[in-house]
Amino acid sequence: MSKSAITVTVKLFAAYQEAYGVSELALEFPHGTTVKAVCDRLIAEHPELTKWRNITRFGINLIFVEPDTLLQEGDEVVLIPPVSGG
């Protein structure tokens, strides 16, 4: 029997980290989920993050990826909003 879900680690930075108050989340998603769906879920849980939706970059396992990249079990996902300041 195949597992119906995968678990990924989501590293949070800048506005995402501020919204959640933690630097890392472990989340379950269905097979076939894209990395963009991770962002959509976080924004659904914290609507104040909506302004970052179209300018956030995505990384999986330390490599920048396109928003439609599919997640795999155990992936480490990074959401990188623009960072202001010096």
Written account of the structure:
By secondary structure, this protein is α+β, with helices and mostly antiparallel strands. The protein is built from two helices and five strands; from the N terminus they run E-H-E-H-E-E-E. The chain has helices spanning 14-20, 35-45, and strands spanning 5-12, 24-30, 57-60, 63-65, 76-80. A five-stranded mixed sheet has the order 2-1-5-3-4. Strand 3 and strand 4 (63-65) form a beta hairpin.
Which key phrases capture this entry?
nucleotide-binding, MOCS2A, Mopterin_synth/thiamin_S_b, 2 helices, alpha+beta, 5-stranded mixed β-sheet, Ubiquitin-like (UB roll), 86 residues, ThiS/MoaD-like
How would you summarize this macromolecular structure in one to three sentences?
Keywords: Nucleotide-binding. This protein is α+β, with helices and mostly antiparallel strands and 86 residues long.
Rg value: 13 Å
Rounded mean pLDDT score: 92
Number of domains: 1
From the 3D structure, determine the CATH topology: Ubiquitin-like (UB roll)
- Strand arrangement in the largest pleated sheet: 2-1-5-3-4
Distance between the termini: 51 Å
